[in-house]
Specification:
By secondary structure, this protein is mostly helical. The chain contains 25 helices and no strands.
């Protein structure tokens, strides 16, 4: 395998060879759109003339530059150690300040401006509450040592390195659809660190396998990744209609895993001496977590209520149950306070998500995303565009990429919505910085699982990426032309307009 012996580039060389060419590629693909900006002003888009004119305004261009600068800061989070939420929060605020400055010049009043902002707030509020409830459950399970117990049992099972490579990967693939890819990567990354000790080669390959498996597993479940959750809550794909992505996701996991497993030795790790047990009430919280997932699905499927309402109801049940656990615990160490677990939620991610939604919402209001949508989806077609979006998610992060697509609201059937869900979900695996799971594991296995160590295996991971796309075309072609009720109505409007 020649890719194992090539000389690793420096960070500056990687940026020149990889990031800059990709940006150039995206610029070429989007050239017709940017050319339209400098046209005589006659841009055939489905937005009013005022917002057509705003695109070329210097303040609007400043908003676009602000967006790219804020995400450039996110890309270098590992070097600067500045959390990703900080630059995007500032960028989102500045973008809307620029919009507020120029809006009166185009006849856009305060009422319309506030309506656009509150539309973004509605999008953010529903997703934030859903994620907050899910993160609180995960934090409670961690506090009750559920994941630590799982780690201890895996390590104490007496398996060799190659067997543990496979077991952690399989666990990641099937745990991610329930617990999300970030938590899954953290839990199983701790297993790998405990087993690998000073074996850097094993830790690197096993961590890459976990990231790939967690991202692949999260792609076929609305609970597995924020991108799938966004598509589900937007109504483009029903809950049970994500499961046709199981086989493509499985191919994405297995193809790289099979190849990488040949580079893992069969030696046995040293046994662990510590024994970890779950705290009192852990099994009750596990049961409540499963019931809460069921409530979120049932609220949406049978009552027509948004899923976050089911999650928050389940969170209320969790709080009351924790109250009784605390009141009936003979030992103070067994008590649990759910409000403390709310504080332990991943607030950096939640605030980052706020910045993403309002930044992209601002660019949508200015008309940029519809311009790009007309260029990419209408010019190059849905399939090529959706595959390219997977590569974009490896560099930019899948959350802003997916929200941008949802804001464009292209005319896609169920097959294409599943394709872009798949590519954005697993495309981030190509780089360690391309997904929350990869970024988290770089912190857990600092110095052993690194950006450039992951980059050595990128060609193998890309084989899994294209295998997943191929399997999707092979097994899900019957979904072409199928629409949800919401998309069917939109599709009929598009066809009538044509």
């Amino acid at each position: 395998m020649t890719f194992m012996t090539f000389r690793m580039p420096t960070k500056q060389q990687f940026i020149q060879r990889s990031i800059f060419p990709l940006m150039a590629l995206l610029a070429v693909l989007a050239f017709p759109a940017f050319a339209a900006i400098t046209d005589s002003g006659h841009i055939e888009m489905g937005i009013d003339q005022a917002r057509q004119s705003m695109i070329g305004n210097p303040w609007a261009i400043a908003a676009l530059v602000t967006f790219f600068l804020s995400y450039l800061a996110v890309l270098f989070e590992e070097q600067t150690h500045m959390r990703k939420s900080k630059p995007v929060l500032l960028g989102a605020g500045l973008i809307w300040v620029f919009i507020g400055i120029i809006a009166p010049d185009y006849g856009i009043g305060h009422h319309e401006l506030r309506g656009a902002v509150y539309h973004g707030l509605e999008e953010y509020g529903s997703l934030m509450l859903f994620l907050l409830a899910a993160m609180t459950y995960i934090a409670a399970l961690q506090e009750r040592q559920v994941f630590a117990t799982l780690r201890g049992k895996l390590v104490a099972a007496g398996m060799n390195m190659r067997q543990l490579f496979w077991v952690t990967g399989i666990f990641a693939f099937f745990l991610s659809p329930i617990a999300d890819n970030l938590t899954t990567a953290l839990v199983l990354g701790a297993v790998v660190m405990a087993v690998g000790a000073d074996n850097k080669k094993f830790i690197l390959v096993a961590c890459i396998n976990i990231v790939n498996a967690a991202n692949a597993g999260g792609a076929f479940s609305p609970f597995g990744d924020i991108t799938t959750l966004m598509v589900w809550q937007a109504g483009h794909v029903e809950f049970f209609d994500f499961f046709p992505l199981f086989l493509p996701s499985l191919a994405c996991f297995l193809v790289p895993a099979i190849i990488m497993s040949f580079f893992v030795s069969k030696e046995k790790p040293a046994p662990l001496k510590e024994e970890i047990k779950m705290k009192r009430g852990a099994k009750i919280i596990i049961l409540l977590g499963l019931c809460t997932i069921g409530m979120a699905i049932s609220f949406e499927q049978f009552l027509g209520l948004p899923p976050f309402l089911g999650m928050m109801t389940g969170m209320g049940v969790l709080m009351i149950s924790a109250y009784f656990i605390r009141k009936t615990s003979p030992n103070q160490s067994d008590s649990i306070d759910i409000l403390e677990e709310v504080a332990n939620a991943e607030w950096d991610t939640l605030l980052f998500f706020f910045g993403v939604i309002f930044s992209v919402g601002g660019l949508t209001f200015l008309g940029y995303l519809e311009l790009v949508s007309n260029t990419m989806y209408d010019g190059y077609g849905a399939t090529i565009t959706n595959i390219v979006m997977g590569f974009a998610s490896a560099i930019i992060d899948n959350i802003p990429v997916m929200f941008a697509i949802l804001s464009m609201n292209p005319d896609l059937d169920q097959f294409q919505w599943l394709l872009v869900t798949l590519t954005c979900g697993v495309g981030g695996t190509m780089l360690s910085i391309g997904s929350a799971a990869g970024v988290a594991l770089m912190g857990v296995a600092r110095g052993k699982y690194t950006f450039f160590g992951h980059l050595k295996w990128t060609p193998i991971i890309m084989l899994g990426y294209f295998a997943a796309i191929g399997v999707h075309f092979l097994v899900n072609d019957h979904l072409m032309g199928k629409y949800t009720d919401q998309d069917r109505i939109a599709h009929e409007k598009v066809m009538a307009a044509e």
